[in-house]
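Recap slide: Flagellar protein FliL, sequence and predicted structure.
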Amino acid sequence: MATTTAPQQAAPASPGPMKRIILIVLIALIAAGAAGAGVWFFMSKRAPVAVSAEAAPALSAAPLFFPLESMTVNLQSDDGQQHFLRIGLTLKLGDAGTQQALTDHMPEVRSRILLALSNKHPEELAPLEGKRSLAQELKTLITEPTERGVAPIRVQDVLFTEFVVQ
């Protein structure tokens, strides 16, 4: 009796452990390379460009604001009523040296401001242009030298922080 055996099917060969390790390492290297390339690409675009000192524009120093105490003055009046002005000022200065000069001569500066304000009429101060004109006038008064032979005080701007006319 002859027996016939059916041909046996060979089981698919599973990759050996060495092939799996090589495949995993290869995928890890590709992922690390892609991540490194992405980081380099994005970081190189944001890197600051070196500019020579001659080409760089000069950065101006931040302004220094010097608040003055509020002042109340009687205003000139043609109608016989008492009118008052309560004003708060802040001076915009260029440097700390100017602030020290103002502090040293503050009684004189306040006196000039009070004398100038007491000669104003309420009608002059009501419109916006009157306030702008007053700011310019006060700037001129404050920058005048307090002593002979002394450089004028440099005030960049006079800012109103309080302005009430009654």
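The chain has a mean pLDDT of 81.
Residues 64-165 form a domain with the Tetrahydropterin Synthase; Chain A fold (CATH 3.30.479).
(End of recap.)
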